[in-house]
# Entry
Amino acid sequence: TSNRMTRQQILTLISMASVNFSSMICYSILGPFFPDEAVKKGASQTVIGLIFGCYAVCNLIGSLILGKYIVQIGAKFMLVTGLFVSSGCTILFGLLNRVPAGPAFISLCFVVRSVDAVGFAAAMTSSFAMTAKIFPNNVATVLGSLEIFTGLGLILGPPVGGWFYQSFGYEVPFMLLGCFLLIMVPFNIYVLPKIDADPSKDSFIRLLTKVKIVLICYVIFTLSAGLGFLDATLSLYAINTFGLSTGYVGLIMLGLSLPYCLASPLIGYFTDKYPATRSWFMVTGGAATALGFCLLGPVPFLHIPSQLWLLIIMLGVIGFSLGMTAIPTFPEIITCAYEQGYEEGLSTLGMVSGLFGAVWSLGMFYGPVVGGLITQHLSFEWAAAVQGGLAFFAVSISLFSMYCIHSKSRSQTKCAFCSVVLIIVFVYIT
# Structure
């Protein structure tokens, strides 16, 4: 029946799950031990933030370009090539400990991470677009289900990477996981269908003329900025404040990934069944994210001492709220694009996927770089408070825009203009 998945859909779901899992486990292994290793090689906290941040910049550029030309390149070819490039870069990154400390090590970190980012952008952009194309009526449900495997990759990456690093040294985690990612290449060549489509004349610029899409993009930005900040700073903070080993730091990061992994499929199913709830999920999740970051340190003006148990609980709150906020955003942008008159096809889905990846990458650049600067010159507590402020502002803007939807059309234009101006001003001041 129409409610049952075909064999091709099942195989595609398995393929996408393998892509999400293998890509995210390779991405997340850096957190527990790389910042400490980079410090030994002469990198400052700011430089470490820039190494994490350059990945995001190249991912941003790659997502926009590849999303625009996904039809011409081919979605399947783009995904498989992206996996191959990422696997090679993961293995190469494991050899950087043999490079002399100082500028040589730092420069090669930037080069390998940048190329890896383009490969990751290719894999994720095509993965999102193909998922939305093959499951057009259940986008949030399928994405939420796939986020289980994204969450598993994020869950297993830090502890597995930390344990292998402690037991076998710097090289082994990258070699093993890079080879695991490489195995996914022939598997996806065999399983994935070839999708033919005609290129569209629409552009990203027209997509961003709808103010609701701009506001959703800002919400995505705040989420990825928070995650990028934690990637670059949490491990050093936990080691220096609580005296933990890299293995235990990896276990702490489970507090972030596990709630996200559990919440995503439920939220995806619910928002597909009741699309009107997407905005409220984004608002509620944003508020919980703001609270989580403010109490993560906690923020100094609250005069609450840093406690390991409080850190773990707040990571859980952030992980759960991330699922509440992130899962509804992608299908909501697709809905807005169709309302703008975009064609229902792979070309539009590729642009939406590219836009999502680009905005996510922008946050992943902002989070480590600005978070690293604030951590270096002030403290981790103040840097976490800034991330909480970004999330709180997203909630305020979302509520403001939701109020405008129910007002007269003349007021909606003014509210839309004010919302965009406030976002720009707030990000600039921060």
Remarks:
- The chain has a mean pLDDT of 77.
